[in-house]
Structure formats: C-alpha cells, structure tokens
C-alpha cells in the first residue's frame, strides 16, 4: 500500500436513487484506500447500511438524500419526478451548506460526488460522477435539452466530471454519456464494477433472476416471475432485492428464492449462471459486462433511461431486452437462446478507472 497520500481525506457521496450508485462507488473507494488516503462516506438508510457492511472501518456521516418518490403506474413516472423538482432543488441547497461546514469540521481535502449536484467547493477539488449527461424523459426533445442545460450548469461547478463508461463506439450508455458536447474536464472511467471475473466456475443455475428497482414495480416483476417460473424445466435462483429482511425459500425442487445476497455471494451466483434476467439499471449493466454474462433485460416501466438502455444495448447485440408488459418468461428464454449475443469486453480495460483515481490523487 502506498503511503504518499496518507494525510489526504476524501469524501465520497452516492446518490440515493437505487443502490447502484453506492455499489458502483465501492471499487473507487477501494482504490482510494489502496493509495493510502482516508475515506469518509456520507449517506443514509440502506445506502449507508450497504457501504458500512462493505467498509466497517470507515466513518459514515449522515446526509439526507433526495428521497425521490415513485409513481404507482409506469406511465406516470416522468410526471412524478417533475413534480418533485422543487424538493430536489431544496436538497441541493442543503447539501451545499452541509458541505461547507463538513469540509471545515472534518478536514476534507477532496470530494467525489456520485450524481449529487450540491457537493462542490471553491477551495478543494470536487469530482462529479454521472453516466447521464443527457437525461432521458418520457417527454422528449425540449425537456431533455432543458434538463441537460441545467445538468451542465451544476457539473461546471465541479473540478472534474467522471463518466463510468468508455469513450468509443463500444460503450454501454449510448447518447446518455456521449452527447454532441461534453462538459469541461470530462474523463471516461471505463467499467465500474465491484465484481471479479474468474474462469472455470461450475454452472449451478440455468437462470439467475435479479429483481430490483422502486416499488411497486419491484413487486410486480417478482410476482410475474414467480407465477411463470414454477412450470419451467430449469434450475434457477431468484434474488428479490430486499436487503435487511433475510428469507430463503425453495419455491420448487429446482427454484430457490432468497431476499438478498452479499457482494461475494452475488458475484459467485452470477459466475455460476448460464443466463441472467434483470432490470436495465446502469450499475447492473456494468456488472454484467465485467463478468461477460448473457442477459435478458426487463426495463422498469416508465423509466426512460432504462427503456433507452435496453433498446440501445439490444441493437448493439450485447443483451436481449423486452418490456415488462406482456412479458412471458418461457418465450423470453427461447428468444434469448436464439439471440446472437456479442461480447461487450473485446479488448477493453476493465480496470481503467484505477489510473484515473491515481492521477486525481496525485494532483
């Protein structure tokens, strides 16, 4: 371990919109620690619990998230988010005041903000992480251009912008992170995943189902899968995406359902599965790409970003995607078996982010 940065204290803050922001920050935190820096995390709720489990030795400061509420119906998703913009702006103003005080009281030397807009500071380097420079909405062009303008206004207040993707055509985010104009000081991180590839793992499951996302859509997908999987001749593991509530149930002799797996268990389950079924959340996509897994994507209804990513990555041949409405598991598995999957990895460096982090710490 290097000790050249031992006196430096880095604050890392993930957005509270799904656990993906917290989990994709894990490899960054490890790299900062490996460089000899001290890391302080700011989070609340399940995000704080997840990171405390991963890093029990680190200080986690309580910081309220944006606490987005989700619509009951997918088609209302966009309107529900728009209605909460004033609340989000208030949260941004609060976190800006909070940061000014925290830098003084905790001696913070730099900040890494994963998609939180108010964590910039005039006296220390601050990094903004996002794969959504263009924010997809159900309302199309004008709204997306307006949100991009607002997005860039905040990003320009940071010292740097890190994008968890690759710069070239072989990428995972499409137009979201490859718009015509990039913010200043932008660097592509490559793939950010806490998981590790390992060859020669014995296949235990024909299908691994990863259920995630906001309610009620998480429960809707779970119910749909449970109704349809029981009669299929396959060995499957269903992970229900409910950390903190231990449960393990043998649905059929060949289908096991668990509420949650820790990082190591999930890494092993992914490696031991022939096919994965999941949402098209961006962190999940990076995990699948890192482990070179074939997957069926079912975007969260109404979530424009996930719908776009599913369609984009299916067109590229990396994953097979179809909507939740009218979903039939048997037909989906048959179609995926015929789908001409392409490997995303090719010759990409899956640890590109490490050099970016080291360069940042040196500066």
TrEMBL record:
Q: Name one GO molecular function term.
A: hexosyltransferase activity
An example Pfam family from this entry, by short name, is: Glyco_tran_28_C
Q: Which segments constitute the Glycosyl transferase family 28 C-terminal domain?
A: 221-337
Q: Which keywords describe this protein according to UniProt?
A: Transferase
What InterPro entries does the record point to?
Glyco_trans_28_C (IPR007235)
Instruction: Report whether Transferase shows up as a keyword of the record.
Output: yes
This protein is called what? Answer: UDP:flavonoid glycosyltransferase YjiC (YdhE family)
Organism in which the protein naturally occurs: Chitinophaga japonensis (Flexibacter japonensis)
């Amino acid at each position: 371990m290097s000790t050249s940065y031992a006196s430096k204290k880095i604050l890392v803050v993930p957005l509270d919109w799904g656990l993906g922001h917290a989990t994709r920050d894990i490899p960054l935190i490890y790299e900062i620690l490996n460089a000899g820096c001290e890391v302080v995390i700011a989070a609340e709720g399940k995000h704080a619990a997840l990171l405390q489990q991963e890093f029990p030795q680190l200080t986690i400061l309580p910081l309220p998230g944006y606490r987005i509420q989700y619509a009951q119906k997918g088609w209302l998703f966009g309107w529900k988010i728009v209605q909460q913009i004033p609340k989000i702006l208030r949260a941004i103003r609060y976190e800006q005041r909070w940061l000014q005080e925290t830098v003084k009281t905790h001696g913070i030397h730099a900040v890494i903000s994963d998609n939180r807009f108010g964590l910039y500071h005039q006296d220390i380097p601050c990094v903004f992480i996002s794969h959504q420079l263009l924010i997809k909405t159900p309302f199309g062009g004008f709204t997306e251009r307006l949100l991009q303008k607002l997005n860039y206004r905040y990003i320009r207040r940071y010292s740097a912008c890190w994008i968890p993707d690759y710069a070239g055509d072989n990428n995972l985010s499409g137009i979201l992170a490859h718009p015509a104009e990039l913010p200043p000081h932008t660097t592509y991180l490559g793939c950010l995943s806490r998981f590790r590839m390992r060859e020669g793992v014995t296949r235990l499951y024909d299908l691994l189902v990863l259920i995630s996302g906001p309610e009620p859509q998480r429960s809707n997908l779970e119910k749909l899968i449970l109704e349809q999987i029981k009669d299929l001749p396959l060995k499957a593991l269903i992970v229900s995406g409910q950390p903190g509530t231990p449960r393990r149930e043998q649905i059929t002799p060949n289908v096991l359902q668990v509420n949650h797996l820790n990082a190591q268990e999930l890494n092993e389950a992914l490696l031991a599965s022939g096919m994965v079924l999941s949402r098209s959340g961006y962190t999940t996509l990076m995990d699948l790409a890192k482990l070179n897994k074939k997957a069926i994507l079912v975007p969260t209804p109404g979530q424009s970003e996930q719908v776009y990513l599913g369609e984009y990555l299916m067109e590229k041949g990396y994953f097979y995607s179809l909507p939740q409405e009218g979903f039939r598991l048997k037909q989906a598995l048959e179609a995926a078996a015929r789908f001409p999957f392409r490997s995303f990895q090719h010759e990409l460096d899956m640890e590109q982010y490490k050099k970016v982090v080291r360069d940042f710490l040196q500066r």
